[in-house]
Specification:
The complex is a heterodimer of chains A (about 400) and B (about 475). Chain A has about 400 residues and is an alpha/beta fold. Helix content of chain A is about 35%, strand content about 20%. In chain B, helix 2 (about 50-60) runs parallel beside helix 3 (about 85-95) and helix 6 (about 195-220) crosses helix 7. Chain B has helices spanning about 20-25, 50-60, 85-95, 110-125, 145-150, 195-220, 235-245, 265-280, 315-320, 325-335, 355-360, 360-365, and strands spanning about 5-10, 15, 40, 70-75, 100-105, 130-135, 155-160, 165-175, 180, 190, 225-230, 285-290, 295-300, 320-325, 365-370, 375-380, 395-400, 405-415, 425-430, 435-440, 455-465, 470-480. The chains are: A alpha/beta (about 400), B alpha+beta (about 475).
């Protein structure tokens, strides 16, 4: 295996806009909001940035294509700006681009910024859109919750966990995330909810009710990265470095070959296995201090807990009910409130997750601060369970 | 001997009790109240004359695809396309190849019987076999009598010269421009004239003339007719005509009014198939087609008739029944009300005809691939095998998927996506011979799906591009046909 990214790149600064229904903002406003914070945190000027990666997924409903919207919004000095899109992993992809640029030596300082302005579609949920002329002829009609809901039927069947228990476990996941999000001023939804509310909510796609689905919001997040040496020279004494960046993409096996049973994410398993190896982590359940996983739906989070090898297969529901992932549990999950409370402005989400892990590692998380975290992990899952893109990133204290 | 080698039928699962129509419209048209008995069949939102013809044809062919078919005919007055050959779509959906004649027959309630007489004569000349299908999905204005009289359905016959289950004995035809109703070009609905006139001057005079011609041509006597299958929505009209023609009192067959209504030009064949399911070897059947004249066709069943026992036919589909008491749903499925589908329904549904042509076997014919190297069946067929342990390049041969079983691996009922009949059920189905796909479901009830259920694939409308008048067709998973 290649030597990997571990400790080759440090995060110099990060920023994150307030997420929510930002009726008064265009994407440009959100971009500048996240960027200003990141720039101030990094303690540099725009002129010091050598290259930028810009993540936005559903460009047709807000900024359009290319790197131009970012370059114009920030008046970047004609540096390379690459627009990336890889479903819900888009934000993490921008980060990967910037990190790799620094690691290669092509750039000293690079920017990754993601944004999505989703609230100009006129309805809740992600925009309904085409998938190309051939896909549109054969692809099943279904919403995002419809695709992910099926994990629950397959999981229940495979592990012999009755649907009431599954429903209670995934409901508890949402309760936990709302409890965390209530403490986060940047979250969209800041209200604790009781389990009964979750269980009795209107059905969106069986068995997922309204509170099993993450919100939809506007938001932006940004990271400025450099080498540990440059970070040091810029006066950063406490440095957070990248430990692993992995991406796994479906090749049609899950959707077309009968070896996949529909109860797990094949890609997340591959990406996390590689990420742990890259980061030198052997016992994730013990070594990962905290993580943000892609809780687009509560069932996604539960299944992912297993695919990230934090819970044993078929047992995540038990860990959830035991409070293992709560803020005061062994491995807190979605300590910032997750997609559940932030909503999912697609291009921004991966960077928003890293923003929380970074803040926690630096002891900046205020009311939500966990005790002495060492490694923080983020995970994105884009597409559908049967065909998707999965990213895993691990960051931590330099030298850990 | 030329005749019918196999038959198949189709009636949509949903049945609308006439009492529901009367309850909703009786306030406006009190004359409807005399017709509140029985029920009519109604298409699901994704069914039309073509999809019903496909299903009837599949029933008829019973998973086989004969390689000697020289012609495919489709009869209907409600075909989805006015200028795109509908029988061509039927042939592609059935994977019957392309070296044959395909023809649409339309413009009269008599189209199916006239077309059938013609097709029998052609197949006698060409040898081989021919598929003759009919489907009808007539719409009527709300509160119109036709709403109570009509039903949706289809039928199909495989014609040939050997191993026939019913020999074609002959026919009599009369052509008279007797306009009991009509539907002009671009009109949505039929326009009808007075029923008493249609009975006395129409049926009672014109049908006996055609019957006599058929008897003369076949050398049969009226008393030799065991089954007299005549559509007609006028009360007891078949009995009256049978009596005038000198048929035995019990010969006139039930027109299925009480269980499905009249399926337009398809109804003669629907009644013929229903009759063949009742008949015993050696019986003589006369089937009538009515419409600006009359066709009278005579068949004699053979000792091969019992080989058809595994067809669902009309009777099997009639038993596969679900009562629909929501009149608004009937209106919506038939495009009789303007619904607000919400913003999610507004996506553009244009079809790239180039893409459709390249992939017609995959999309319309539901043909996947089978890797010659490792034997893995997959959908869609791809250049590189999907089996993670194979990955061979350019090794896939065509593999027809439509007739294999489809087992539910995972599913959901989606309330968020736009669907004409929410919640929209869909899920991963695995096929009996290998392969899988995330498929739309149809004809399922809420709470009526479970992991492990064995479904079958059906040809349906995937989406209607209303802006351009184009139906997109594809295959969906549906519960197997079984008596409820």
């Amino acid at each position: 295996m290649a030597s990997g990214i571990r400790d080759k790149v440090a995060i110099l600064g990060m920023g994150c806009s307030k997420f929510g229904e930002r009726w008064d903002c265009d994407a440009e406003d959100l971009i500048v909001e996240a960027y200003q914070e990141a720039l101030a945190d990094a303690g540099i000027e725009t002129s010091q940035i050598d290259a930028a990666w810009f993540a936005t997924a559903i460009e047709e409903v807000h900024v359009g294509k290319s790197g131009v919207p970012l370059s114009v919004a920030l008046r970047l000095p004609n540096i390379p700006v690459t627009r990336v899109e890889n479903f819900c992993a888009s934000g993490t992809e921008a980060f990967r681009g910037a990190v790799y640029a620094v690691a290669s030596g092509a750039a000293d300082i690079a920017l990754a910024l993601g944004v999505e302005k989703l609230k100009d579609t006129g309805y809740g949920g992600l925009p309904q859109r085409g998938a190309g002329p051939l896909n549109d002829m054969v692809r099943a009609n279904g919403s995002a919750p419809g695709g992910f809901a099926q994990l629950a039927t397959a999981y229940s069947q495979k592990h012999g966990v009755d649907m009431d228990t599954v429903k209670k476990a995934i409901g508890s996941i949402s309760v936990k995330s709302h409890a965390n999000g209530a403490k986060n001023p940047k979250a969209h939804l800041r209200k604790e909810i009781p389990l009964e509310t979750v269980l009795n909510a209107p059905m969106i796609a069986a068995p997922l009710g309204l509170f099993d689905c993450c919100g939809v919001s506007d938001g932006s997040a940004a990271a400025i990265v450099t080498t540990p040496e440059i970070a040091k020279s810029l006066g950063k004494s406490e440095r957070i470095t990248v430990k692993a960046l992995q991406l796994a993409v479906s090749n049609g096996q899950e959707s077309g070959h009968n070896s996949w049973d529909g109860s797990y994410f094949l890609t997340t398993r591959k990406a996390s296995e590689r990420a742990y190896k890259e980061a030198g982590i052997e016992k994730p359940r013990e070594q990962i201090s905290m993580f943000e996983c892609h809780d687009c739906f509560s069932i996604t989070e539960m299944v992912t807990m297993e695919d990230l090898y934090i819970s044993n297969e078929g047992e995540a529901w038990r860990d959830v009910l035991d409070g293992f992932y709560n803020a005061d549990g062994q491995v807190p999950c979605q300590i910032d409130g997750g997609l559940k409370c932030f909503g999912h402005p697609i291009g921004a989400s991966g960077l928003r997750m890293l923003y929380e892990m970074y803040g926690q590692l630096l002891g900046r998380a205020g009311e939500r601060q966990l005790q002495d975290p060492t490694f923080g992990m983020t995970h994105n899952l884009g597409g559908q369970p049967h065909q998707n893109v999965s990213s895993v990133a691990i960051i931590g204290r330099e030298g850990a | 001997m030329v005749g019918i080698k196999a038959y198949g039928g189709y009636v949509p699962r949903r049945r609308l009790p006439r009492s529901v129509i009367v309850e909703n419209n009786g306030w406006f048209n009190s004359a409807l109240k005399g017709y509140s008995k029985g029920e009519r069949s109604m298409c699901n939102w994704d069914e039309d004359a073509l999809t019903m013809a496909v299903e009837a044809s599949r029933d008829c062919l019973d998973k086989t695809r004969p390689d000697d078919i020289k012609a495919i005919y489709l009869a209907s007055t409600t075909m989805p396309f006015t200028d795109r050959q509908n029988s061509g779509v039927l042939g592609t959906a059935l994977n019957l190849g392309q070296n044959m004649m395909t023809m649409d027959i339309t413009s009269s309630q008599r189209a199916a019987t006239s077309g059938l007489i013609n097709a029998l004569s052609v197949v006698q000349g060409t040898g081989g076999s021919a598929l003759f299908a009919a489907g009808e999905h007539r719409r009527s204005q709300t509160a119109n009598n036709n709403e109570l009289m009509y039903g949706d359905g289809g039928a199909a016959l495989l014609l040939g010269n050997e191993d026939v289950v019913a020999e074609y004995v002959g026919a009599g035809q009369v052509a008279v421009d007797f306009v009991d109703h009509y539907r002009g070009q671009n009109a949505d609905f039929d326009y009808n004239w007075e029923e008493r006139w249609i009975r006395d001057e129409g049926f009672m005079k014109i049908v006996p003339e055609a019957v006599q011609a058929a008897l003369d041509n076949t050398g049969l006597a009226a008393g030799e007719i065991d089954h007299f299958a005549m559509p007609g929505t006028i009360r007891n009209i078949a009995g009256m005509v049978a009596k005038r023609c000198g048929f035995a009192a019990e010969a006139a067959r039930d027109n299925l009014h009480s269980v499905m209504g009249e399926a337009g030009t398809a109804h003669s064949l629907v009644m013929l198939v229903d009759c063949l399911q009742d008949a015993t070897p050696g019986q003589v059947i006369m089937v009538i087609g009515w419409g600006q004249g009359c066709d009278a066709l005579v068949f004699r069943t053979t000792d091969k008739l019992p080989t058809m026992a595994n067809r669902q036919g009309i009777k099997g589909h009639l038993a596969h029944r679900k009562e629909e008491t929501n009149y608004n749903k009937f209106l919506a499925f038939n495009g009789l009300v303007q619904q607000d589908g919400g913003l999610r329904s507004e996506t553009d549904k244009q079809t790239a005809l180039t893409t459709l042509y390249r992939n017609r076997e995959m999309v319309i014919g539901f043909v996947g691939g089978k890797c010659e190297q490792c034997g893995t069946v997959q959908y869609p067929k791809a250049r590189i095998c999907v089996n993670p342990n194979c990955g061979a390049i350019n090794t896939q041969e065509d593999h027809k998927m439509a007739e294999t079983s489809a087992t539910i691996q995972s599913w959901t009922a989606d309330n968020l996506t736009y669907a004409p009949d929410p919640p929209h059920h869909f899920g991963m189905v695995t096929f009996g011979e290998g392969g899988r796909m995330m498929a739309d479901f149809t004809d399922v009830d809420e709470g009526g799906v479970a992991v492990g259920d064995e479904f079958r694939m059906v040809f349906r409308i995937k989406a209607a591009d209303e802006r351009r008048g184009f139906n997109k067709y594809f295959w969906k998973a549906a519960p197997k046909v079984q008596a409820s």
